[in-house]
Amino acid sequence: MKKHYIALWALLAATFAFFAVASAFDSPSIGGHKFKSSGIADALFAVPEPEPCEIPAIGDSATATATRPAFPAPLDTAAQTILFIGDSMLEGLGPRLAAYAEKNGHTLYTVIWYSSTSEVWGQSDKLAHYMDMVKPTYVFVCLGANELFVSDIANKRRGYVRKIISDIDTVPYVWIGPPNWKPDTGINDLVAENASEGSFFLSNGMHFDRSKDGAHPTRSSAALWLDSVARWMPQHCAHPIRMERPDKASGKARRIFVHQPNER
Amino acid sequence: MTAIADIFHNIGRMLTYDPSGPMLFSSGTFWALFLVFMPVYGMLRRRFWQMVVFVVAFSFFFYYKSSGIFVCLLGATSAVDWLLSKAIARPGASRRVRRLCVAASLLTSLGILAYFKYANFFLWNINAMVGSNFQPLDLVLPVGISFYTFQSVSYIIDVYKGRVAPTATWLEYAFFLSFFPALVAGPIVRADYFLPQIRENRHATRSEVYTGLWLIILGVVKKAIIADYIAQYNDLIFQTPGGYSGFETLMGIIGYTMQIYCDFSGYSDMAIGIALIMGFKLAKNFDFPYKAQNLTDFWRRWHISLSTWLRDYIYIPLGGNRKGTARTYLNNFATMLIGGLWHGAAWKFVFWGAMHGAGLAVHKASKPVLGRIGDSWPVRAASWLVTMTFVALLWVFFRADSWADSWTVVSSVFRDFSAAYIPAFAAARSLWLILMLVIVVSHCLPTRFWESAQAWFVRSPWIVKLLIFIVVVQLVIELRTESVSPFIYFQF
Asked: Domain boundaries in chain B?
């Protein structure tokens, strides 16, 4: 083999080895910026998931049962100021929730933080900032899609999930679980365990038409997803609000705040 | 023991077809496989048949990872094409038999493409026209089928015309058709250019190897850093048409214009770089298209392998410019219409192609007038602005989900445009703006600069190359989205 082939191979191998080894350790921080991990070690050493079997319907799953209040709570008919925070899934859910808000007299503020996770939100003070700024009377959260495959997630992320919930404080909320495209390593169970009763909507097990990336539901599918949340709320949510189905497919939030993945 | 079993299980999973995770050149899985591929390829490079078998096997596996069972279709297409090409070139074969073989090959290749890509489009249109209720077929488009079908068509026609001799064995033809760097998203490789390189059987030089690495790094920067990052904002604009101010929408349109360039040319750079490392030269696919000052120039710089293919196998056979002015315009228009339809089975692509065809015709028709205006810098600036506005506006129709969305996006720019958004936008999307600036500056730099940079990289010490590569990979990791965005041109 030619010398320059060997040199190139060594370069590629050294780079690969560098990132593989680095991913086995906690990412270092420099100047307050925490470097992201390549995830190679996680991908290699992840405990294999059991083969997917028949996924129980939402009403039958242990998680959903655990978060369902014993009886329907009374409907809060007041117009709400809604804060909707989460990851890129809000691109699909946000416009539909805005349509519900317009129909039912609520005011919606949306905060999309791309590629965000419970860790990212839990480490930042953005939620507290928006709670303070918007002063919402209701909060929707959609997080978890970017941490479906994190190993040992209960230990790694429990504190952050609790931090998010404590930032929401006493304001009623609904945490919409991620739209699994593969079995997760425990994010749904983690949120379900920590969310107050009737505040977690399990999306796992629902059927979605996916966009080209195979992960995000298409816009129409995301609208149906939000419709499912709205249908679930009167019977199962701890604090149901007016969520009459709108005729319009999408609406406009009062304001949309966007944060990029690298922001902290 | 359990941990080792888990690792093997995970590796096995990574090597299995996953519909949601096509194998991208910028993915860790590809690089891990390339690390295994390279030394074996390096050892076999001078052993012709062993090398061919190995590369074909790897290419088929690469295609299996991206498209699953459709790898069988690729194998079958290549076998049928090769047998027919042998029949076409057989000494003593009558003209009638040769023509029948060409027809059979075109029918097979284009028939498969038409079935997978256009059957549902056809059904939807039939339903819309006659009010019938044909159910759409449950079809999945095999990745890269449009690219390798065009390669197969050009090969058969070239063999028929005597421009290329058919390969002696199926393996050599399979090597050409399935060559993994160009398999799923081009560049469209032409047989007369590529087949002799297989037989040349030579190692890449040191300069070619590191030029290849340079192109890969450029490609990764364009695709995985710039295109994927700016896509997040652009998607927001196109997924909520009318939901943003005029200025923000305008930025989304410009952003998508840059995104599709970085996405596709980045992929091409990686493909050309990988091929070069293997000792194969693929023709340039992009040549700073947004420097173009008219539409004709744009199409000489954009997706060059497709435009030259369309020129050689559609425009010229239709008569090109040999049958009068009106016919030339019509040929141009028809060629671009087909080019538009090649991009996807939807009226929006037909419209996009038709508008480019019309634009080319208008440019050709107005050449005498434009020639009298002169070539001063204000004229060049105005020409560039008109060309880019036209190109960017048509990208809106290319990208948006529907006609209604396209019009909403375009009209939003004029309806709600206010400079008051600019400071807030700059504050909120500073990195997006910086990356856009990087693309603009990189376009403005003279070609000489890029040649010098490439030469410097090739000459630089190994450790410098390693550090650059590590920094680029870390940047990709820092900016990557939660799910890898497939190459836009994968869908074609």
From this structure: 2-200, 206-491
